[in-house]
């Protein structure tokens, strides 16, 4: 996404669909919501909402987990 969106501008219609497709592709390839927010100049909540609206299965928060000892 070469240009960043102006903070607070409404993104609707075809432009929103195009943005959702781009963000979904980048998220599925491993980029985090925070990284996407920084790259687009939008908030974490905006990116989260766009991804959930487009049907993305969001990843868990990660971090240390306690698994079975093998």
UniProtKB/TrEMBL annotation:
It holds the Pfam family HTH_58. It comes from the Bacteria. Residues 5-66 form the Helix-turn-helix domain. This is Helix-turn-helix domain-containing protein. It comes from Actinomadura macrotermitis. The lineage of its organism: Bacteria, Bacillati, Actinomycetota, Actinomycetes, Streptosporangiales.
């Amino acid at each position: 996404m070469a240009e960043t969106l102006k903070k607070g501008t409404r993104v609707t219609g075809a432009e929103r669909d195009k943005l959702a497709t781009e963000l979904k592709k980048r998220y599925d390839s491993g980029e985090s919501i925070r990284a996407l927010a920084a790259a687009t100049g939008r908030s974490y909540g905006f990116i989260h909402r766009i991804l959930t609206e487009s049907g993305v299965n969001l990843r868990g928060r990660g971090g240390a987990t306690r698994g079975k000892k093998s």
